[in-house]
């Protein structure tokens, strides 16, 4: 019996785990699609496709051409464009769409969250003189370049090819640690006073939230 073809819209830890699970089941021909923002993504089970589809219609054409029987959206909770494109493409092609969305983090005792609704609000919420850990992807940091009165610690998986347009910053190339102690050490070494992040949910990036709680640091939390 031929394997059923499934397309996973990935880029998250949960998507990688799902690809491995479906591949091991022996029932699915698995293809995972990645946006291509990371130069050297971690190995994934099954086939891997890197790059955009050319919008919702391009995704629909990919589904038709490759005879995809099911699409599973396991993208980042803030990846609104690809999720909207997936909904359109699956409706257009009559393909089953399953959405697996991470639950957001919930505030716990000791958390000092400043809840905001956008990147611009987050940038405006920073006090003058703040030393800020920007726990955001590179495509989301532009709103903070106007804050010439703050210092920024920026962590990226891949180093940018050009200087960033900040007046005062430090750039490190690394992935987030899952160890709160390691995240706390990073925050302490850089004299961080504030953290800015999105409420992504999941376990992969939660260590910095735990570290901030234990250190009593305010977190400017961008809601979904």
In words, what does this structure look like?
The protein is α/β, with parallel strands linked by helices and 224 residues long. The chain folds into 2 domains: 4-99, Rossmann fold, CATH 3.40.50.20; 112-222, NAD(P)-binding Rossmann-like Domain (Rossmann fold, 3-Layer(aba) Sandwich), CATH 3.40.50. Helices cover 29% and strands 25% of the residues. The chain contains 6 helices and 11 strands. The protein has helices at 13-25, 55-65, 80-93, 119-125, 180-189, 207-215; strands at 4-9, 28-34, 47-50, 70-73, 96-99, 112-116, 131-135, 151-156, 169-173, 194-198, 218-222. It has a 6-stranded parallel sheet. A 5-stranded parallel sheet has the order 3-2-1-4-5, sandwiched between helices. Strand 1 (4-9), helix 1 and strand 2 (28-34) form a beta-alpha-beta unit. The longest helix has 14 residues, at 80-93. It is elongated, with a radius of gyration of 19 Å. The model has no long low-confidence stretch (mean pLDDT 93).
CATH fold topology of the largest domain: Rossmann fold
Fourth CATH level, the homologous superfamily of the largest domain:
NAD(P)-binding Rossmann-like Domain
The arrangement of helices and strands along the chain is EHEEHEHEEHEEEHEHE
Structural class: alpha/beta
List low-pLDDT spans.
none
User: How many β-strands, per DSSP?
Assistant: 11
Spatial strand order of the main sheet: 6-11-10-7-8-9
The average pLDDT is 93
Instruction: Report the sheet with the most strands, covering strand number, pairing sense and barrel closure.
Output: 6 strands, parallel
Overall geometry comes to: elongated
Total of domains: 2
CATH class of the largest domain: Alpha Beta
């Amino acid at each position: 019996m031929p394997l059923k073809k499934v397309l996973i819209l990935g880029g998250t830890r949960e998507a990688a785990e799902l690809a491995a699970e479906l591949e091991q089941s022996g029932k699915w021909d698995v293809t995972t699609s990645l946006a291509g923002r990371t130069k050297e993504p971690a190995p994934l089970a099954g086939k891997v496709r890197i790059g955009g589809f050319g919008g919702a219609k391009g995704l629909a054409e990919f589904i038709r051409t490759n005879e995809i029987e099911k699409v599973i959206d396991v993208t980042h909770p803030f990846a609104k464009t690809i999720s909207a494109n997936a909904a359109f493409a699956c409706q257009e092609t009559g393909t089953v769409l399953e959405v697996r969305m991470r639950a957001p983090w919930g505030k716990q005792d000791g958390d000092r969250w400043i809840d905001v609704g956008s990147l611009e609000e987050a940038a405006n919420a920073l006090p003058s003189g703040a030393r800020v850990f920007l726990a955001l992807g590179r495509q989301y940091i532009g709103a903070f370049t106007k804050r010439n009165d703050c210092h920024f610690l920026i962590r990226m998986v891949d180093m940018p090819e050009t200087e960033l347009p900040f007046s005062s910053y430090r750039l490190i190339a690394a992935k987030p640690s899952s160890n709160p102690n390691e995240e706390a050490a990073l925050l302490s070494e850089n004299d961080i006073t504030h953290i800015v992040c999105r409420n992504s949910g999941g376990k992969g990036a939660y260590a910095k939230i735990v570290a901030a709680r234990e250190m009593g640091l305010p977190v400017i939390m961008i809601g979904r």
